Amino acid sequence: xxxxxYLKEKGRLTKHCSISCEDCRLGASKNKYDFACDNFxxxxxxxxxxxxxxxxxxxxxxTYKTKFLxxxxxxxxxxxxxxHIGVCxxxxxxxxxxxxxxxxxxxxxCWD
Length: 112
Fold this sequence. Notes:
Radius of gyration: 18 Å
Order of helices and strands: HHHHHH
Distance between the termini: 20 Å
């Protein structure tokens, strides 16, 4: 796991440190060393990264694409690309698509 992925997953796990330490996988009550998360991370970086990696596998990030495919598992996708089914994220979820401003017509980015 690279550093950027680690930091993103850690932020997602901890909700950017807004969850209680008792509920956090990195907190003293959950790591076998009884260290506060920052000490655990500094003293045992390999174990910290592995804990985050394992959590990421167990709790993958939910995207509009995964929600759509859970609802419509038989949707035909070509090359695993949502844009080939001809549906805009706005039409399904009624969120404002970023394709006209930020993503410049790249449907895949909205779905992910």
